[in-house]
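## tool: complex_structure
## caller: assistant
## args:
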Amino acid sequence: MATGSATLPKTGVLSLHRLGVMCGLAAGAWLGAAEAPTKLVTLGFSPFLISMGMVVGVFVARWTLPMALKGTTYVWRDLREKPHLIPWAILAGALWAVANTLTIFAIRDIGLSVAFPLWNTNSLVGLFWGVLLFKELRGAGAGPWAKVLGGAIAIVAGACVLGLATSQQPAGLSDRAGAGLAAALGAGLLWGTMYIPYRKAYISGMNPLSFVTIFTLGELVTIGILTISFVGGVSVFSGELSALRSSLFWLFLGGFCWVIGDLFQQYAAKYVGIARGIPLSNTNQLWGLAWGALVFGELHGKGAPYQLMVILGSLIIVGGAVAISRAEAPHSEQASWRAAMMRECGRYGIDPARVEAALTGDDPLSRETPKRAWWDFLIIVLALAVFVWLGLGTVTPDLSMNPFWMVVLVTATVAVLTVCTAALWKRTRFS
Amino acid sequence: MTNSIGRQILTDVHFWIPLGVLIVGILVLLLIH
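## result:
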Protein backbone atom coordinates (compact mmCIF):
# COMPACT_ATOMS: atom_id res chain seq x y z
CA MET A 1 0.00 0.00 0.00
CA ALA A 2 1.43 3.24 -0.96
CA THR A 3 0.23 6.10 1.11
CA GLY A 4 1.63 9.56 0.76
CA SER A 5 4.87 9.06 2.62
CA ALA A 6 5.37 5.56 1.25
CA THR A 7 5.31 6.67 -2.36
CA LEU A 8 8.04 9.18 -1.80
CA PRO A 9 10.96 7.03 -0.73
CA LYS A 10 14.21 8.56 0.36
CA THR A 11 16.67 9.32 -2.40
CA GLY A 12 18.34 6.14 -3.59
CA VAL A 13 15.57 3.86 -2.24
CA LEU A 14 13.85 1.76 -4.86
CA SER A 15 10.18 2.75 -5.27
CA LEU A 16 7.58 0.04 -4.65
CA HIS A 17 6.21 0.59 -8.15
CA ARG A 18 9.59 -0.09 -9.69
CA LEU A 19 10.11 -3.10 -7.43
CA GLY A 20 6.70 -4.52 -8.41
CA VAL A 21 7.46 -4.01 -12.11
CA MET A 22 10.81 -5.78 -11.70
CA CYS A 23 9.07 -8.69 -9.95
CA GLY A 24 6.44 -8.91 -12.73
CA LEU A 25 9.12 -9.07 -15.42
CA ALA A 26 11.20 -11.58 -13.41
CA ALA A 27 8.05 -13.71 -13.07
CA GLY A 28 7.77 -13.73 -16.86
CA ALA A 29 11.40 -14.87 -17.22
CA TRP A 30 11.08 -17.76 -14.76
CA LEU A 31 7.59 -18.90 -15.74
CA GLY A 32 8.91 -19.02 -19.32
CA ALA A 33 12.07 -20.87 -18.25
CA ALA A 34 9.89 -23.48 -16.51
CA GLU A 35 8.81 -24.72 -19.94
CA ALA A 36 12.37 -25.76 -20.87
CA PRO A 37 12.87 -28.80 -18.57
CA THR A 38 9.41 -30.16 -19.41
CA LYS A 39 10.45 -30.37 -23.08
CA LEU A 40 12.88 -33.11 -22.01
CA VAL A 41 10.07 -35.37 -20.87
CA THR A 42 9.78 -38.29 -23.25
CA LEU A 43 6.58 -38.22 -25.23
CA GLY A 44 3.89 -40.82 -24.73
CA PHE A 45 2.63 -39.99 -21.24
CA SER A 46 -0.85 -38.79 -20.41
CA PRO A 47 -0.95 -34.97 -20.15
CA PHE A 48 -2.79 -35.40 -16.83
CA LEU A 49 0.13 -37.37 -15.47
CA ILE A 50 2.73 -34.85 -16.70
CA SER A 51 0.72 -32.06 -15.11
CA MET A 52 0.50 -34.05 -11.86
CA GLY A 53 4.27 -34.71 -11.86
CA MET A 54 4.99 -31.02 -12.24
CA VAL A 55 2.55 -30.07 -9.47
CA VAL A 56 4.25 -32.49 -7.06
CA GLY A 57 7.55 -30.76 -7.90
CA VAL A 58 5.86 -27.42 -7.32
CA PHE A 59 4.63 -28.66 -3.95
CA VAL A 60 8.15 -29.63 -2.86
CA ALA A 61 9.54 -26.26 -3.96
CA ARG A 62 6.69 -24.30 -2.36
CA TRP A 63 7.30 -25.94 0.98
CA THR A 64 11.04 -25.40 0.73
CA LEU A 65 11.66 -21.88 -0.58
CA PRO A 66 9.45 -20.11 2.01
CA MET A 67 11.12 -22.10 4.80
CA ALA A 68 14.55 -21.22 3.42
CA LEU A 69 13.73 -17.52 3.11
CA LYS A 70 11.62 -16.95 6.24
CA GLY A 71 11.44 -20.11 8.35
CA THR A 72 8.48 -22.23 9.48
CA THR A 73 7.86 -20.19 12.63
CA TYR A 74 7.38 -17.00 10.60
CA VAL A 75 5.02 -18.70 8.13
CA TRP A 76 3.04 -20.32 10.97
CA ARG A 77 2.65 -17.01 12.86
CA ASP A 78 1.65 -15.18 9.68
CA LEU A 79 -1.08 -17.76 9.01
CA ARG A 80 -2.30 -17.64 12.62
CA GLU A 81 -2.52 -13.87 12.45
CA LYS A 82 -4.83 -14.03 9.40
CA PRO A 83 -6.52 -17.46 9.59
CA HIS A 84 -9.41 -16.31 7.41
CA LEU A 85 -7.03 -16.32 4.43
CA ILE A 86 -6.40 -20.08 4.66
CA PRO A 87 -9.68 -21.01 2.85
CA TRP A 88 -8.91 -18.28 0.31
CA ALA A 89 -5.50 -19.76 -0.47
CA ILE A 90 -6.93 -23.30 -0.79
CA LEU A 91 -9.66 -21.93 -3.08
CA ALA A 92 -7.02 -20.24 -5.26
CA GLY A 93 -5.07 -23.50 -5.53
CA ALA A 94 -8.23 -25.38 -6.55
CA LEU A 95 -8.98 -22.73 -9.20
CA TRP A 96 -5.50 -23.16 -10.67
CA ALA A 97 -5.80 -26.96 -10.79
CA VAL A 98 -9.22 -27.01 -12.48
CA ALA A 99 -8.09 -24.35 -15.00
CA ASN A 100 -4.95 -26.32 -15.82
CA THR A 101 -6.99 -29.48 -16.40
CA LEU A 102 -9.40 -27.57 -18.66
CA THR A 103 -6.49 -26.50 -20.87
CA ILE A 104 -5.65 -30.18 -21.52
CA PHE A 105 -9.15 -30.74 -22.90
CA ALA A 106 -9.05 -27.45 -24.82
CA ILE A 107 -5.81 -28.44 -26.59
CA ARG A 108 -7.25 -31.88 -27.38
CA ASP A 109 -10.46 -30.51 -28.89
CA ILE A 110 -9.50 -27.27 -30.68
CA GLY A 111 -5.68 -27.23 -30.77
CA LEU A 112 -3.23 -24.95 -29.03
CA SER A 113 -3.38 -22.15 -31.62
CA VAL A 114 -7.10 -21.58 -31.03
CA ALA A 115 -7.19 -22.44 -27.33
CA PHE A 116 -4.20 -20.36 -26.22
CA PRO A 117 -5.59 -16.91 -27.16
CA LEU A 118 -8.82 -17.75 -25.36
CA TRP A 119 -7.29 -18.72 -22.02
CA ASN A 120 -4.62 -16.05 -22.34
CA THR A 121 -7.34 -13.46 -21.66
CA ASN A 122 -6.93 -14.35 -17.96
CA SER A 123 -4.92 -11.18 -17.35
CA LEU A 124 -7.84 -9.07 -18.64
CA VAL A 125 -10.19 -10.98 -16.32
CA GLY A 126 -7.77 -10.26 -13.46
CA LEU A 127 -7.64 -6.60 -14.43
CA PHE A 128 -11.46 -6.48 -14.35
CA TRP A 129 -11.59 -7.98 -10.84
CA GLY A 130 -8.80 -5.66 -9.69
CA VAL A 131 -10.78 -2.60 -10.75
CA LEU A 132 -14.15 -3.91 -9.52
CA LEU A 133 -13.23 -5.44 -6.16
CA PHE A 134 -9.97 -3.81 -5.08
CA LYS A 135 -10.38 -0.30 -6.48
CA GLU A 136 -7.27 -0.57 -8.63
CA LEU A 137 -7.04 2.22 -11.25
CA ARG A 138 -9.89 4.07 -9.50
CA GLY A 139 -9.11 7.77 -9.61
CA ALA A 140 -6.02 7.09 -11.70
CA GLY A 141 -6.97 9.39 -14.55
CA ALA A 142 -6.86 8.75 -18.28
CA GLY A 143 -3.08 8.34 -18.60
CA PRO A 144 -2.51 5.35 -16.28
CA TRP A 145 -5.79 3.80 -17.43
CA ALA A 146 -4.72 3.93 -21.07
CA LYS A 147 -1.24 2.61 -20.29
CA VAL A 148 -2.44 -0.30 -18.12
CA LEU A 149 -5.44 -1.34 -20.24
CA GLY A 150 -3.60 -0.75 -23.51
CA GLY A 151 -0.51 -2.54 -22.22
CA ALA A 152 -2.53 -5.53 -20.99
CA ILE A 153 -4.39 -5.83 -24.29
CA ALA A 154 -1.08 -5.51 -26.20
CA ILE A 155 0.51 -8.32 -24.15
CA VAL A 156 -2.49 -10.60 -24.79
CA ALA A 157 -2.48 -9.71 -28.50
CA GLY A 158 1.28 -10.19 -28.84
CA ALA A 159 1.09 -13.56 -27.08
CA CYS A 160 -1.71 -14.60 -29.46
CA VAL A 161 0.43 -13.66 -32.48
CA LEU A 162 3.31 -15.71 -31.07
CA GLY A 163 0.96 -18.62 -30.36
CA LEU A 164 -0.36 -18.57 -33.93
CA ALA A 165 3.16 -18.36 -35.36
CA THR A 166 4.63 -21.22 -33.36
CA SER A 167 1.93 -23.80 -32.73
CA GLN A 168 0.58 -26.41 -35.09
CA GLN A 169 -2.55 -25.38 -36.92
CA PRO A 170 -5.50 -27.68 -36.21
CA ALA A 171 -6.59 -29.89 -39.07
CA GLY A 172 -10.06 -28.45 -38.73
CA LEU A 173 -12.50 -27.95 -35.93
CA SER A 174 -13.86 -31.25 -34.75
CA ASP A 175 -17.39 -31.98 -33.60
CA ARG A 176 -16.07 -31.34 -30.11
CA ALA A 177 -15.19 -27.74 -30.96
CA GLY A 178 -17.87 -26.38 -28.64
CA ALA A 179 -16.48 -28.37 -25.73
CA GLY A 180 -12.96 -27.18 -26.51
CA LEU A 181 -14.04 -23.54 -26.68
CA ALA A 182 -15.88 -23.89 -23.35
CA ALA A 183 -12.77 -25.46 -21.80
CA ALA A 184 -10.43 -22.71 -23.06
CA LEU A 185 -12.76 -19.89 -22.02
CA GLY A 186 -13.34 -21.58 -18.68
CA ALA A 187 -9.58 -21.83 -18.06
CA GLY A 188 -9.15 -18.10 -18.77
CA LEU A 189 -12.01 -17.25 -16.42
CA LEU A 190 -10.70 -19.49 -13.62
CA TRP A 191 -7.10 -18.27 -13.86
CA GLY A 192 -8.23 -14.64 -14.03
CA THR A 193 -10.45 -15.15 -10.98
CA MET A 194 -7.63 -16.87 -9.10
CA TYR A 195 -6.03 -13.43 -8.73
CA ILE A 196 -8.85 -12.31 -6.40
CA PRO A 197 -7.45 -14.42 -3.51
CA TYR A 198 -3.93 -13.19 -4.34
CA ARG A 199 -4.85 -9.55 -3.97
CA LYS A 200 -7.13 -10.28 -1.03
CA ALA A 201 -4.20 -11.81 0.85
CA TYR A 202 -1.82 -8.93 0.17
CA ILE A 203 -4.15 -6.10 1.09
CA SER A 204 -4.59 -8.01 4.37
CA GLY A 205 -0.84 -7.89 4.99
CA MET A 206 -0.05 -11.56 4.41
CA ASN A 207 3.41 -12.45 3.20
CA PRO A 208 3.39 -14.05 -0.30
CA LEU A 209 5.63 -16.82 1.04
CA SER A 210 2.99 -17.80 3.60
CA PHE A 211 0.17 -17.62 1.05
CA VAL A 212 1.83 -20.03 -1.40
CA THR A 213 2.46 -22.71 1.23
CA ILE A 214 -1.32 -23.06 1.66
CA PHE A 215 -2.17 -22.37 -1.99
CA THR A 216 -0.13 -25.41 -2.97
CA LEU A 217 -2.21 -27.70 -0.72
CA GLY A 218 -5.41 -26.79 -2.59
CA GLU A 219 -3.54 -27.19 -5.87
CA LEU A 220 -2.04 -30.61 -5.05
CA VAL A 221 -5.22 -32.14 -3.60
CA THR A 222 -7.42 -30.92 -6.47
CA ILE A 223 -5.01 -31.95 -9.23
CA GLY A 224 -4.55 -35.31 -7.48
CA ILE A 225 -8.31 -35.98 -7.44
CA LEU A 226 -8.71 -34.86 -11.07
CA THR A 227 -5.72 -36.85 -12.32
CA ILE A 228 -6.74 -40.09 -10.59
CA SER A 229 -10.30 -39.64 -11.94
CA PHE A 230 -9.24 -38.97 -15.54
CA VAL A 231 -6.50 -41.61 -15.88
CA GLY A 232 -8.86 -44.34 -14.64
CA GLY A 233 -8.35 -44.95 -10.94
CA VAL A 234 -5.63 -45.31 -8.32
CA SER A 235 -4.05 -48.54 -9.66
CA VAL A 236 -3.71 -47.16 -13.22
CA PHE A 237 -2.35 -43.93 -11.77
CA SER A 238 0.30 -45.74 -9.68
CA GLY A 239 1.39 -47.82 -12.66
CA GLU A 240 1.74 -44.82 -14.95
CA LEU A 241 3.52 -42.81 -12.26
CA SER A 242 6.19 -45.49 -11.85
CA ALA A 243 6.64 -45.51 -15.64
CA LEU A 244 7.20 -41.75 -15.47
CA ARG A 245 9.99 -42.20 -12.89
CA SER A 246 12.86 -41.61 -15.34
CA SER A 247 11.37 -38.26 -16.40
CA LEU A 248 10.24 -37.00 -13.00
CA PHE A 249 13.43 -35.00 -12.43
CA TRP A 250 12.68 -32.76 -15.43
CA LEU A 251 9.13 -32.20 -14.25
CA PHE A 252 10.35 -31.35 -10.74
CA LEU A 253 12.96 -28.98 -12.20
CA GLY A 254 10.28 -27.32 -14.32
CA GLY A 255 8.09 -27.07 -11.21
CA PHE A 256 10.96 -25.51 -9.26
CA CYS A 257 11.53 -22.82 -11.94
CA TRP A 258 7.77 -22.30 -12.05
CA VAL A 259 7.64 -21.67 -8.29
CA ILE A 260 10.36 -19.02 -8.53
CA GLY A 261 8.36 -17.31 -11.30
CA ASP A 262 5.16 -17.66 -9.32
CA LEU A 263 6.73 -16.12 -6.20
CA PHE A 264 7.81 -13.10 -8.23
CA GLN A 265 4.28 -12.89 -9.62
CA GLN A 266 2.91 -12.88 -6.07
CA TYR A 267 5.24 -10.03 -5.09
CA ALA A 268 4.21 -8.12 -8.23
CA ALA A 269 0.54 -8.60 -7.27
CA LYS A 270 1.39 -7.30 -3.81
CA TYR A 271 3.35 -4.20 -4.78
CA VAL A 272 1.68 -3.02 -8.02
CA GLY A 273 -1.67 -4.82 -7.84
CA ILE A 274 -3.13 -7.45 -10.17
CA ALA A 275 -4.13 -5.00 -12.93
CA ARG A 276 -0.45 -4.20 -13.55
CA GLY A 277 1.38 -7.21 -12.11
CA ILE A 278 -0.41 -10.04 -13.93
CA PRO A 279 -0.06 -8.70 -17.49
CA LEU A 280 3.65 -8.05 -16.79
CA SER A 281 4.18 -11.64 -15.65
CA ASN A 282 2.36 -12.84 -18.78
CA THR A 283 5.45 -11.80 -20.75
CA ASN A 284 6.51 -15.41 -20.01
CA GLN A 285 5.33 -16.21 -23.53
CA LEU A 286 8.33 -14.27 -24.84
CA TRP A 287 10.79 -16.27 -22.71
CA GLY A 288 9.10 -19.57 -23.54
CA LEU A 289 9.49 -18.69 -27.21
CA ALA A 290 13.17 -17.81 -26.73
CA TRP A 291 13.83 -21.22 -25.13
CA GLY A 292 11.83 -23.07 -27.77
CA ALA A 293 13.25 -21.25 -30.80
CA LEU A 294 16.86 -20.62 -29.78
CA VAL A 295 17.68 -23.68 -27.66
CA PHE A 296 15.35 -26.36 -29.07
CA GLY A 297 15.18 -25.05 -32.67
CA GLU A 298 11.39 -25.22 -32.75
CA LEU A 299 11.10 -22.56 -35.46
CA HIS A 300 13.52 -24.37 -37.73
CA GLY A 301 12.05 -24.71 -41.20
CA LYS A 302 9.34 -22.12 -40.59
CA GLY A 303 8.96 -19.67 -43.45
CA ALA A 304 9.54 -15.91 -43.48
CA PRO A 305 5.88 -15.01 -42.71
CA TYR A 306 6.05 -17.03 -39.47
CA GLN A 307 9.35 -15.43 -38.46
CA LEU A 308 7.90 -11.99 -39.16
CA MET A 309 4.92 -12.86 -36.95
CA VAL A 310 7.32 -13.88 -34.16
CA ILE A 311 9.17 -10.55 -34.38
CA LEU A 312 5.90 -8.60 -34.54
CA GLY A 313 4.36 -10.50 -31.60
CA SER A 314 7.50 -10.02 -29.50
CA LEU A 315 7.61 -6.28 -30.20
CA ILE A 316 3.93 -5.90 -29.27
CA ILE A 317 4.54 -7.70 -25.95
CA VAL A 318 7.59 -5.55 -25.16
CA GLY A 319 5.59 -2.40 -26.00
CA GLY A 320 2.76 -3.48 -23.68
CA ALA A 321 5.18 -4.22 -20.83
CA VAL A 322 6.87 -0.82 -21.26
CA ALA A 323 3.47 0.94 -21.19
CA ILE A 324 2.44 -0.78 -17.94
CA SER A 325 5.82 -0.23 -16.29
CA ARG A 326 5.42 3.51 -16.89
CA ALA A 327 1.93 3.63 -15.31
CA GLU A 328 2.78 4.31 -11.68
CA ALA A 329 -0.31 4.69 -9.50
CA PRO A 330 -0.91 8.36 -8.67
CA HIS A 331 -1.83 9.48 -5.14
CA SER A 332 -5.54 9.52 -6.00
CA GLU A 333 -5.39 5.82 -6.98
CA GLN A 334 -3.32 4.94 -3.92
CA ALA A 335 -6.09 6.45 -1.79
CA SER A 336 -8.49 3.98 -3.45
CA TRP A 337 -6.10 1.08 -2.69
CA ARG A 338 -6.07 2.23 0.91
CA ALA A 339 -9.88 2.20 1.04
CA ALA A 340 -9.82 -1.42 -0.17
CA MET A 341 -7.26 -2.25 2.53
CA MET A 342 -9.38 -0.61 5.23
CA ARG A 343 -12.37 -2.69 4.13
CA GLU A 344 -10.43 -5.86 4.81
CA CYS A 345 -9.13 -4.61 8.14
CA GLY A 346 -12.63 -3.62 9.25
CA ARG A 347 -14.26 -6.85 8.12
CA TYR A 348 -11.68 -9.27 9.54
CA GLY A 349 -10.46 -7.28 12.55
CA ILE A 350 -6.88 -6.82 11.34
CA ASP A 351 -4.63 -4.06 12.67
CA PRO A 352 -4.43 -1.46 9.84
CA ALA A 353 -1.04 -0.21 11.04
CA ARG A 354 0.52 -3.66 10.66
CA VAL A 355 -1.08 -4.17 7.24
CA GLU A 356 0.05 -0.74 6.09
CA ALA A 357 3.58 -1.51 7.26
CA ALA A 358 3.58 -4.83 5.36
CA LEU A 359 2.31 -3.13 2.22
CA THR A 360 5.02 -0.50 2.30
CA GLY A 361 7.76 -3.12 2.36
CA ASP A 362 8.22 -3.29 6.14
CA ASP A 363 7.90 -6.58 8.04
CA PRO A 364 6.84 -6.16 11.68
CA LEU A 365 6.20 -9.90 12.08
CA SER A 366 9.78 -10.69 11.10
CA ARG A 367 11.11 -8.62 14.00
CA GLU A 368 8.89 -10.52 16.46
CA THR A 369 9.82 -13.98 15.17
CA PRO A 370 12.72 -15.99 16.59
CA LYS A 371 15.48 -17.17 14.32
CA ARG A 372 15.09 -20.28 12.22
CA ALA A 373 14.67 -23.67 13.92
CA TRP A 374 16.68 -26.80 13.12
CA TRP A 375 13.78 -28.38 11.24
CA ASP A 376 13.87 -25.51 8.70
CA PHE A 377 17.28 -26.77 7.61
CA LEU A 378 16.01 -30.36 7.68
CA ILE A 379 13.23 -29.43 5.23
CA ILE A 380 15.79 -27.88 2.87
CA VAL A 381 18.06 -30.95 3.10
CA LEU A 382 15.10 -33.30 2.46
CA ALA A 383 14.02 -31.30 -0.60
CA LEU A 384 17.57 -31.38 -1.97
CA ALA A 385 17.70 -35.13 -1.31
CA VAL A 386 14.50 -35.61 -3.33
CA PHE A 387 16.04 -33.73 -6.28
CA VAL A 388 19.30 -35.71 -6.04
CA TRP A 389 17.40 -39.03 -5.83
CA LEU A 390 15.30 -38.14 -8.87
CA GLY A 391 18.38 -36.92 -10.73
CA LEU A 392 20.16 -40.25 -10.23
CA GLY A 393 17.58 -42.22 -12.17
CA THR A 394 16.95 -39.66 -14.88
CA VAL A 395 17.03 -40.39 -18.56
CA THR A 396 17.97 -37.50 -20.85
CA PRO A 397 16.29 -37.91 -24.23
CA ASP A 398 18.35 -37.54 -27.37
CA LEU A 399 17.12 -34.06 -28.16
CA SER A 400 18.99 -31.52 -30.26
CA MET A 401 19.84 -28.43 -28.21
CA ASN A 402 21.92 -25.34 -28.94
CA PRO A 403 24.49 -25.12 -26.10
CA PHE A 404 25.44 -21.49 -26.87
CA TRP A 405 21.88 -20.19 -26.54
CA MET A 406 21.28 -22.41 -23.54
CA VAL A 407 24.20 -20.79 -21.71
CA VAL A 408 22.99 -17.31 -22.77
CA LEU A 409 19.43 -17.90 -21.54
CA VAL A 410 20.48 -19.62 -18.31
CA THR A 411 22.84 -16.69 -17.60
CA ALA A 412 20.10 -14.16 -18.36
CA THR A 413 17.47 -15.84 -16.15
CA VAL A 414 19.93 -16.30 -13.28
CA ALA A 415 20.96 -12.63 -13.62
CA VAL A 416 17.28 -11.61 -13.46
CA LEU A 417 16.85 -13.79 -10.36
CA THR A 418 19.92 -12.33 -8.67
CA VAL A 419 19.04 -8.69 -9.36
CA CYS A 420 15.38 -9.01 -8.37
CA THR A 421 16.04 -11.14 -5.28
CA ALA A 422 18.65 -8.63 -4.12
CA ALA A 423 16.21 -5.75 -4.72
CA LEU A 424 13.41 -7.54 -2.83
CA TRP A 425 15.72 -8.34 0.07
CA LYS A 426 17.19 -4.85 0.26
CA ARG A 427 13.86 -3.03 -0.03
CA THR A 428 11.47 -5.37 1.84
CA ARG A 429 13.42 -8.27 3.43
CA PHE A 430 11.00 -10.50 1.46
CA SER A 431 7.99 -8.91 3.17
CA MET B 1 -11.23 -21.81 12.51
CA THR B 2 -13.85 -20.32 14.78
CA ASN B 3 -17.48 -19.90 13.81
CA SER B 4 -16.91 -16.18 13.83
CA ILE B 5 -14.27 -16.42 11.10
CA GLY B 6 -16.43 -18.84 9.14
CA ARG B 7 -19.31 -16.37 9.31
CA GLN B 8 -17.05 -13.50 8.28
CA ILE B 9 -15.91 -15.40 5.20
CA LEU B 10 -19.34 -16.64 4.21
CA THR B 11 -20.84 -13.16 4.48
CA ASP B 12 -18.03 -11.66 2.39
CA VAL B 13 -19.44 -11.21 -1.11
CA HIS B 14 -15.90 -11.39 -2.52
CA PHE B 15 -15.66 -15.05 -1.43
CA TRP B 16 -18.64 -16.17 -3.49
CA ILE B 17 -17.17 -14.93 -6.77
CA PRO B 18 -14.17 -17.31 -6.93
CA LEU B 19 -16.19 -20.09 -5.30
CA GLY B 20 -18.94 -19.67 -7.91
CA VAL B 21 -16.37 -19.59 -10.73
CA LEU B 22 -14.75 -22.76 -9.34
CA ILE B 23 -18.11 -24.55 -9.31
CA VAL B 24 -18.74 -23.43 -12.92
CA GLY B 25 -15.28 -24.71 -13.89
CA ILE B 26 -15.90 -28.12 -12.30
CA LEU B 27 -19.29 -28.36 -14.05
CA VAL B 28 -17.68 -27.54 -17.41
CA LEU B 29 -15.04 -30.19 -16.73
CA LEU B 30 -17.71 -32.80 -15.92
CA LEU B 31 -19.71 -31.92 -19.04
CA ILE B 32 -16.86 -32.04 -21.55
CA HIS B 33 -14.54 -34.79 -20.34
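## assistant note: The interface with chain B takes residues 83-84, 86-88, 91-92, 94-95, 98-99, 101-102, 105, 109, 129, 133, 176, 179-180, 182-183, 186-187, 189-190, 193-194, 196-197, 200, 226, 230, 347-348 of chain A (CB under 8 Å). The first helix of chain A runs from residue 4 to 7. Handing back to user.
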